Structures are given as structure tokens and as C-alpha cells.
């Protein structure tokens, strides 16, 4: 029979928002349970240098998340490696089902499921995923030593991926549908000064092609956004870096969302449209999407959960 665990606060997700919520909920003596999800540590585990985390002028993303997890454990958060597959929000305590079969009953829930990479939704992109097409340079860049690589996108993610990939690639072509990047100025400056990177303006990927046996990318066909002209670019790897979408599968049909699926919270609060359910981090933040703001929201969610629980007389 499936194990049923009871907790005052269940935290779903394990990025900066989730771990910070764990720290604050533990300090409030709420004895929280945190279920890490499909990607323990969140998006920072797939990045390299983090230069904007206060107190660390340069820290590796995975190292920062290891430290956050250790901190949450040290103050009393019970951290479980599992995936929450569904939640019944219709009654309290809320009931969450997990992939392992365990059931969690929680008086309050903090959602910190974050966001995931967006894809181009091309048939050929799907065909070569894991075989030359990736959304994580830090995961897969090593496999392209001395090779030519294409990065698709124009924001911070694309520029960071392109810069990182120059550690391995002989050449990186960054394909962007406009003629200017949306990244931070300091990142754009680094990209433009890097001799291994060549921007290709006003283009979008039309097709990714390669071999079938073995499965592998050989290049991309890109289309000029104004003329429609097709150009062939030889490449062994294609990295998609066009942003992220909120990981809202658990709540998209239950909680109020906006801006493409981000969970709506009350003004200056992490409270959602269901009392006792709070949301923090990239699941709700369509504006800033920074580790430090996610951590701040995790703090807010835990403090608000504590106050909300203290006000309940029927739990």
C-alpha cells in the first residue's frame, strides 16, 4: 500500500525558490517536505558561471544549487527525490500523488516548479533531440570539440550558451530573427568581441538535417525573414536557446494563469487563486526570471504560508 506522508507545508520544486522556501519554512518550525521534481536544482544546474548572485562574484550554477540544498537540509527541510504527478486542490488538506507512489497530505503548498526550455517545434528538431540537437550547452557542449555549432536565439540564454560553447567549438554561428540581441549589454559586448562567434541576423531555422545511421546532425537550413532565401550552414550541433516556458502542468487547469501560462499571484504576494497555495520563482515570474528574485519569492512564500496557517482554525 502507498505510503501517506502528512506535512504542514509541501514544497514542490527545488530551484532557488524551492530551497529558500525550505530554509524559511524550517526556521518557522513548519517541518516542511520538499519534493525535488524532474530536475533537482532547476535551471541553474544546467548553467556555468553565475556572476550576479550576491556575495559570489563568480560561482558555478550547479555548485550554488548544491549549497542551497545543503542549507535547506541543515535547517531541517526533508528533501525527497521524487516527482509530484498530480495534486487535488479541491479540499484540505491538499493531496499530492507522486511518481514513486507515495502520497503527501499538506495543509499548505508552495509551488516552485520553475520553467523549462522552449523548442522550435520543427519535426527535424524532434528527430535529432539528443543526437545533435540540445537545449543545454553545459550538458552537451563537451561533445563538440573542434566542431562547428549553431545557437538559435537572441536573449541572455542564447548569448551565454554561445560564449560557453566557444570553449569547445571551432566556430559558433548564432542565428537570430532580428538584427539586434536582447541580452544584457555586458554579454553582447563579450559576444561581439569573440572571434569564434558569427551572428547571422534576420534568419530563422527552417530545417535541421543529418544522417540516420548513425543518427546525427550535419547542418541546418536557415531562412531569411525578409527575403525567404534559404542558406545552408554546416554544423554538428544545434543548441536551441529561445527562452523558457513555466512548468505549470500540475496547475494550468486549476490556478489562474496569464502571459503564456505563468501562475497569477496577488499583488505584492505569492498567494494564488486558491487559499493555502502559494507560487514562487519562474513559475510565476514572467518579468525578472533571476535566481535572486526567485529566492526572494521563495522566502515570501514560506513567510506567507506560515502566517496563513496560523490564521486557520479548521486545520
Account of the protein in words:
The chain is α/β, with parallel strands linked by helices and 315 residues long. It has 2 domains: 4-116 and 244-311, FAD/NAD(P)-binding domain (3-Layer(bba) Sandwich); 119-240, FAD/NAD(P)-binding domain (3-Layer(bba) Sandwich). Helices cover 24% and strands 30% of the residues. It contains 7 helices and 21 strands. It starts with a strand and ends with a helix.
The CATH superfamily title of the largest domain: FAD/NAD(P)-binding domain
Reported CATH architecture of the largest domain = 3-Layer(bba) Sandwich
Separate helix tally? 7
Strand content: 25-35%
Q: What's the number of extended β-strand segments? A: 21
Mean pLDDT: 94
CATH class of the largest domain: Alpha Beta
Radius of gyration: 21 Å
Q: Which regions contain 5 or more consecutive residues with pLDDT less than 50?
A: none
**Major sheet: size, sense and barrel closure?**
7 strands, mixed
Could you give the distance between the termini?
A: 26 Å
Q: How many separate domains make up the residues?
A: 2
Following the backbone from N to C, one meets helices and strands in this order, namely EHEEEHEEEEEHEHEHEHEEEEEEEEEH
- CATH names the topology of the largest domain as FAD/NAD(P)-binding domain
Amino acid at each position: 500500500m502507498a505510503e501517506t506522508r502528512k506535512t504542514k507545508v509541501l514544497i514542490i520544486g527545488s530551484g532557488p525558490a524551492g530551497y529558500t522556501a525550505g530554509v524559511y519554512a524550517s526556521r518557522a518550525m513548519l517541518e516542511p517536505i520538499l519534493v525535488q521534481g524532474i530536475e533537482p536544482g532547476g535551471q541553474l544546474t544546467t548553467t556555468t558561471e553565475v556572476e550576479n548572485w550576491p556575495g559570489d562574484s563568480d560561482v558555478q550554477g550547479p555548485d550554488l544549487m548544491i549549497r542551497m540544498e545543503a542549507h535547506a537540509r541543515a535547517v531541517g527541510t526533508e528533501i525527497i527525490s521524487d516527482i509530484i504527478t498530480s495534486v487535488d486542490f479541491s479540499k484540505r488538506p491538499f493531496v499530492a500523488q507522486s511518481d514513486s507512489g507515495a502520497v503527501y497530505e499538506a495543509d499548505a503548498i508552495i509551488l516552485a516548479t520553475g520553467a523549462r526550455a522552449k523548442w522550435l517545434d520543427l519535426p527535424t528538431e524532434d528527430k535529432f533531440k539528443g543526437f545533435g540537437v540540445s537545449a543545454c550547452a553545459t550538458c552537451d557542449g563537451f561533445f563538440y570539440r573542434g566542431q562547428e555549432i549553431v545557437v538559435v536565439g537572441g536573449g541572455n540564454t542564447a548569448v551565454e550558451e554561445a560564449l560557453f560553447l566557444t570553449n569547445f567549438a571551432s566556430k559558433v554561428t548564432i542565428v537570430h530573427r532580428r538584427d539586434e540581441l536582447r541580452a544584457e549589454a555586458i554579454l553582447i559586448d563579450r559576444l561581439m568581441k569573440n572571434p569564434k562567434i558569427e551572428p547571422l541576423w534576420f534568419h530563422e531555422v527552417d530545417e535541421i538535417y543529418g544522417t540516420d545511421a548513425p543518427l546525427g546532425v550535419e547542418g541546418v537550413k536557415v531562412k531569411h525573414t525578409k527575403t525567404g532565401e534559404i542558406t545552408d550552414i554546416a554544423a554538428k550541433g544545434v543548441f536551441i536557446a529561445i527562452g523558457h516556458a513555466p512548468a505549470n502542468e500540475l496547475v494550468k487547469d486549476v490556478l489562474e494563469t496569464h502571459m503564456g501560462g505563468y501562475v497569477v499571484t496577488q499583488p505584492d504576494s505569492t498567494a494564488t487563486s486558491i487559499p493555502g497555495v502559494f507560487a514562487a520563482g519562474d513559475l510565476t515570474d514572467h518579468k525578472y526570471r533571476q535566481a535572486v528574485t526567485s529566492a526572494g519569492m521563495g522566502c515570501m512564500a514560506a513567510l506567507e504560508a506560515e502566517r496563513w496557517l496560523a490564521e486557520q482554525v479548521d486545520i
